[in-house]
TrEMBL record:
This is FAD-binding domain-containing protein. Gene3D superfamilies: FAD/NAD(P)-binding domain (3.50.50.60). GO terms for molecular function: FAD binding; oxidoreductase activity. It holds the Pfam family FAD_binding_3. SUPFAM superfamilies: FAD-linked reductases, C-terminal domain, FAD/NAD(P)-binding domain. It comes from Apiospora kogelbergensis. One of its GO terms (biological process) is secondary metabolite biosynthetic process. Transmembrane segments: none annotated.
Length: 490
């Protein structure tokens, strides 16, 4: 067991690998919860040091928009960043998305937005760069973490309590009282009490500890084009009363939603090139060879002519949007990922967050929100562990759950709470993509006309479980349920 009384003096050090939206929110959450807990627990004296290591020369987000559902926006507000989030978000005007026919823009089904909550908590579709800047500004203003750049992590080594190198603990137990050493591409290293892998879908941290068949990407057969266009260029003669729309056809769909205070339209256009089993959708000359060469990378670009060709049969509003996209829009291969059965290793010294733990297809707009939920729960749990352990060090009684008596049990609590929900969203996103492309098992046997009612019925309640859950309530129920059982047994 690795309680704080077994640790060396000095602050408890948390190293976060990856300075994207998930990594920065995680840093803010850990700082927020530790400050809140320690201010109400005067016996907590050790302190905490959070370091964020980003591999790029600067903190920036590649990509266009990000959908922050009300479940994630709620947590940003609880960090005290609600006003800033409102300033950068788009307004959905009461509609999450209207699903439309691709050929004449006729309505298939309208999915209402989640109702705003007290304090103006609402859906917050944002530009990724704006959201990152909001979190960066908060970290700097609050002194929440030390930010490092050009620190590409190449591996971690679990150290024993005496500082000796015990090698990489792939099986995940680690020695009590040990630390973790991080190695970087520039030849430098650092040590920490806990390493948080927020390094995305191609996570170096995960790949070191998860070596089985589940740690692999799975070809979805879909590519996506991305871009941002000015809403001002579309306002004249725009045929709809809102900006959030998805046009659907067999094996492709085109979506757009507003960001940046409704001054810009985020555009993502999906095309399935291969069905399950690698069956080609289109045998156009060179089409399949071109698909093979597309990377799973947000920095991959293509010629606009490819978007024009793939969506030539779509209605006039889509054509207007495409005409405003950059001549070199983003294009990347959408890969699915097998669910992981374990998110923490080395006795709780190494833990995964966000895409490193549960990379998912983007079809529910929930990936960033799930990363935010991860960071929030990890921050709460780690703060309970630190305060509980400090209380024991001074022989004080602690009302905290036994789930926070060690790092390993703390990280297991985090995993027990977050893994089932994240993997449910992961699975639902996979199904949603097939619904939008009208290529579920049922729809494959139907014509376009007959597929549309199936889509409409399937979508009506699809987002409810993502938006409605208050993750703090779930945390309290899991923690307090154990405490109630203990009280009943006494």
């Amino acid at each position: 067991m690795s309680n704080l009384q077994e640790e060396s003096s000095g602050p408890f050090r948390v190293a976060i690998i990856g300075g994207g939206i998930g990594g920065l929110f995680c840093a803010l959450s850990i700082h927020h919860h530790y400050q809140s807990s320690s201010s109400s627990s005067p016996h907590v004296k050790r302190g905490i040091q959070i370091d964020v290591y980003e591999q790029a020369p600067q903190y920036r987000e590649i990509g266009a928009g990000v959908g922050m559902g009300i479940n994630a926006a709620r947590l940003v507000h609880r960090l005290g960043l609600g006003p800033g989030l409102i300033q950068i978000a788009g307004q959905r005007q009461g509609t999450w998305f209207t699903f439309r026919r691709h050929d004449d823009s006729g309505e298939v089904v309208v999915i209402p937005d989640a109702d705003p909550e007290p304090g103006d908590v609402r859906q917050a579709p944002c530009a990724r760069s704006d959201l990152l800047e909001l979190f960066l500004g908060a970290i700097r203003e609050r002194g929440a973490a030390t930010l490092h750049t050009e620190k590409a992590c190449t591996g971690v080594t679990v150290l024993g309590g005496d500082g000796e190198n015990n090698g990489v603990d792939v099986d995940g137990e680690g020695k009590g009282g040990g630390k973790v050493q991080l190695r970087f591409r520039d030849g430098t290293s650092a040590t920490a009490d806990v390493v948080v892998g927020c390094d995305g879908v191609h996570s170096v941290v995960r790949d070191q500890f998860v070596t089985d068949a589940n740690n692999k990407s799975v070809e979805s057969g879909t590519i996506a084009y991305r871009g941002i266009v000015p809403i001002s260029a579309l306002e004249r003669d725009w045929p709809f009363d809102h900006w959030s729309n998805i046009w659907v056809a067999k094996h492709k769909h085109f979506l757009a939603y507003p960001i940046t205070r409704n001054t810009k339209l985020n555009v993502v256009a999906f095309v399935t090139k291969r069905l399950g089993g690698g069956i080609p959708i289109n045998d156009r000359e060179g089409e399949q060879n071109k698909y093979k060469n597309i990377r799973e990378s947000w920095s991959s670009l293509c010629d606009l002519s490819e978007v024009v060709a793939d969506f030539a049969e779509f209605d006039e509003p889509v054509q207007r949007i495409i005409s405003l996209m950059d001549e070199r829009p983003g294009r990347w291969r959408i890969n699915d990922h097998e669910p992981l059965g374990r998110w923490h290793f080395a006795g709780g010294r190494v833990v995964l967050v966000g895409d490193a733990a549960h990379a998912m297809l983007p079809h529910m707009g929930a990936g960033a929100g799930q990363s935010v939920e991860d960071g929030w729960i990890l921050g709460r749990a780690l703060a309970e562990y630190l305060c509980s352990s400090s209380s024991k060090t001074e022989n004080r009684s602690s009302s905290s759950s036994t789930k926070f008596q060690s790092l390993e049990s703390t990280m297991q609590f985090y995993q027990d709470l977050r893994l089932p929900r994240a993997q449910r969203v992961q699975a639902a996103s996979r199904v949603s993509g097939n619904l939008y492309e009208l290529q579920t098992e049922e729809m494959n046997a139907l014509s376009y006309e007959d597929s549309l009612p199936v889509l409409g019925e399937a979508m009506l309640q699809r987002m409810k479980f993502v938006w409605s859950e208050d993750i703090d309530d779930s945390y309290d129920r899991m923690r307090d349920g154990e405490q109630q059982q203990q009280q009943q047994q006494q």
